[in-house]
Structures are given as C-alpha cells and as structure tokens.
Amino acid sequence: MAEEKFDVIIVGGGITGCVAAYLLAQAEMEVLVVERAEEAGQKAVTGGRMYGHAMEKIFPGFGEEAPVERKIVRERISFLAEETATTLEYDDEEMRKPEKASYSILRGNLDPWLTEKAEEAGAMFIHGIRVDKVLTDDKGKAIGVLAGEEEMYADCVLLADGVNSLLAQQLGLKKELEPKQVAVGVKEVIQFSEEEINKRFGVKDGEGLAWLFAGDVTNGAVGGGFLYTDKDCVSIGIVETIEEIGYGGVAPRDMVERLKNHPSVRDYLTGGELVEYSAHLVTEGGYDMIPQLYGDGVIVAGDAAALVMNLGFTIRGMDLCAESARLAAETIIAAKEKGDYSKASLSLYEKKLNDSFIVKDMKHYRKMPAFIDNHRIFEQYPGMMEEIMKGLWLVDGEEKEKFFKTAMGAVKKVGIFKLFGDVRKAMGAL
Amino acid sequence: MAMTIEDKLGHNRFNVDSSYAHIHVKDTCDDQKLVERVIMACPAKLYSQREDVKDVWNAAPAASSHTDVLLSPGTTPWAVWV
Prior knowledge:
The structure holds 2 protein chains of 2 kinds.
Chain A: E1 5-11, H1 15-26, E2 31-35, E3 49-51, H2 53-58, H3 62-65, E4 71-80, E5 85-91, E6 102-104, H4 107-121, E7 124-127, E8 131-136, E9 142-147, E10 150-159, H5 166-170, E11 182-191, H6 194-201, E12 207-215, E13 223-229, E14 233-241, H7 252-260, H8 266-269, E15 273-283, E16 294-295, E17 298-300, E18 309-310, E19 315-316, H9 318-338, H10 343-346, H11 348-355, H12 357-364, H13 368-372, H14 375-379, H15 381-393, H16 403-414, H17 416-429
Helix pairs in contact in A: 1-4, 1-9, 9-11, 15-16
Chain B: H1 5-9, E1 23-25, H2 32-41, E2 47-49, E3 56-58, H3 67-70, E4 79-81
Antiparallel strand pairs in B: 1-4, 2-3
C-alpha cells in the first residue's frame, strides 16, 4: 500500500499552525498538524493581548465568537520607582470597534477553539508528538517530517514551531538565537470573580485594561512588567532579556513577586488565588531577527519567523502570527495550483509578507530594540520622574523649592545631554 | 506571605512533560558566572549549585522556557534543549 502523503504538514498547533490549517483545509487541501503538547494550548503562553484585526479577516465576528477574555479599552503604562509610580493612562472609544479592538487572551482557552475550527474545516491534528526532523530528498527539498519514530510525507512543510524553531535551524533557515534577541517571560494568572475584576479595575463586563510597567520591577535590567485583566482573573508577569539576567541581581521568577508587591499594584491583587504559573521565551529582536522565510518545500511562519514587535508601550505578536499564517496558506494554495512547491514558487510568501503590515510595521520600528536596550530607561528615568512628580504634588507645609529647580535637579542627575540624546533616539525609533 | 516556586509549580498546567526532561546535562561547566545565571534564570528554579563540584544539575523535567540553552549559546558546555 502506498504511504499516505499530505499536501501540507504543519509543525506546531498554536495560533499560526491552527490558522494556516483552517485556511488550507477550507481550500480542500489535505493538512496534518503535529503538535507537541498533549492538548491544544497546553504549551502556549502569552502575556497576553491579541490585536483582533488579523483574526477578524479570517474569522469574521472573531471578537464575539472566540473565547477571548476581555476587550481592552484602557491602556496604562507606569514607570516604577521603589515606592512610586508615574503613570500614563489612555481611554479611547475607538478601541471598542471590532477592526481596532484588542483582547486579553488565555491560550488555554483560545487554542482549543482554534483547533476545533481547523478540525471542522477538515484538518487533521496529532497531539503529543514532537517533530525531531524535517525530512528532505537528495536535493534538500523538504518532503515530510520525522515525528516520534514515524515518517510522514507532504508536498510542503510549514514550520510554526515557535520562538526557538530548532527545525528552521536544522534546515539552515535560521541562526541559533542570541541572548540579546530574546527574553524570558514569567507569568502568573490570579483568579478573582468577574465582578471583583470590574470593581478593582473600574471596568465594565467584557471590557478590560492593559497595563505595562518599567523600572523597579526589573531592578534596572532591560525588561518590564505587564498586567492584563482577563474575564475572572488577572495575568501578571515580567519579561527580561536573556542577556540581562543577573544585571539587577533579581531572578526573573522573583521579579514577578516584586511587581505583585509594588505599592501601585498590590492592592489590586489582594485576596486573589494563583491558578497558573508559566514561562516562555519571547522574541525581542525585531525586523533584523527575521530569518530566511522559505526554502524548497518549506515555509517558516509566526513566532518561528520572529514576527514579534516589542515597542515598549505595547507588544504585538499574535496578530502577526495570524496574518503570516494567512499569507503562508495563500502561498501554499497558489503552489498547489501550479503544482510547484519549489523555493522559487514559495518565494511568493516573502513578497506577500513584504507587502503586508507585518514587515512594513516591523521596518518602521526597526530601531526600537536598540533604543530599548538602554539601562537609563529602566534605571534612571523612573527615579527622575518620581522626583519631578514629588516636586509637583507633595506638600508638607515646609517651604517648597521652585518647581523648575526641582525638575532641573532631577534631570541633571541623569544628564541633560544624555536625556536629549535618548529623546532623539526615541524619536528616531518611533 | 509570598508563595514559593514549588507552590507555584503546583499550579503549572503548562510545560511539564513527565516523559522526558527538557534539559539534559552533557558535561560539567567551569564558568561560575554562567552557572549563577542559569540558576537565576530558570523560572522553575530547577537548578542549584552542588557543594562538592562546580556543576549544575536538573532536578526534574524543566519548564519549557527555552531559557537555559540560550545562556550558553554556541559552545553549550553543559546543557542542551531537546
């Protein structure tokens, strides 16, 4: 009996893998997804917020139908000193529009829904098996995968195996990750009731808050904290660049405690129950980290292709994953129509990516990783802001120094030229 | 009172495979700074320094943060992600 051969084997059943599987199956292609986790979402971690626009294109009404947690309608960013927080907050009615909406997400809820969608469309899933190798013919064209002890064959292999795509490395498409290009994220999910979340964060049913932190949380190391309100829980955690580990003397796992116990945060969390603890790598390298995206019979998408943007004030990854999956699926469908899965044929994927918001946005913010890699942002500016704010608002009956003098004193501690230099770099990066 | 990592791992429904360890010790490591960073980096606190030798060990299947292999890129003297 002839071996079964699929049109496409997708390695990884996360957002990228599921979206591609759904679209390819809808186009009546034979699709197999091989996922290492025993259950959908079991190995996936997000902070996490997903911008909905890419999913709306694929699943119209995504925000209503999918198991998202809350629609984010309030942005907050805080610079933390030891006992103070200088906070910027932003509310916008436009955040409620489906095409501009973003949602807090728990992957343990979202991924099973996506898997079901892809299965309903006709894709086949195998869970609990790790793919160790992409099989190639004598000319180097991908012809399938080795999963466990089983060889499986396909016309095309889509690598959606996450940040540290060892398979893309094996094929020479991607270099080994460098410590400055990636961060470790550590996260807790703390449960309350839905009503309690609404009350504590001043939000309505179904609506929520995205809150980012810089400064004291990492004790000066390059990184930051996050808090997202989910339906009946809060996702709170930190991200620290791997290269920075040890810099501030605080382990990433202890930074989470540091954030939870900061005076600006702790009252929000009192009485909550920890229900999850997880960790994952996060891509931080931006545009310059994008690897070779295709080869003979193979395409790399999503996190495996480093399609993540950390802009400091927001982090985008899941919308880029979904869009890259869509573009990869379109490319593979076109390749099937031509009967040509060669490298030249699959180069259409790169062209589509270049024409999409993904590469355009990543190029716009190309200098952001270099700008963020600056200890002053995390070590000195939060203290400078604290001093300025104290000058503005603390009154104790003693004679107050002129505010200008206080402000200039705070700025001089950092250095006026350094401050101007950083502002210039920020403008260049933004 | 702050929870310990052990308590927290009791709530970890992600990333623990009972069938195999994610990090295999290949050799000993002489780089004390690297050892300290690995101990600090692991979100599951699975590494500790043995008193008798300058070495680290993995106590159990590791949380798949992929961190540890990145702390020793290239030469990877002691550990590898699998």
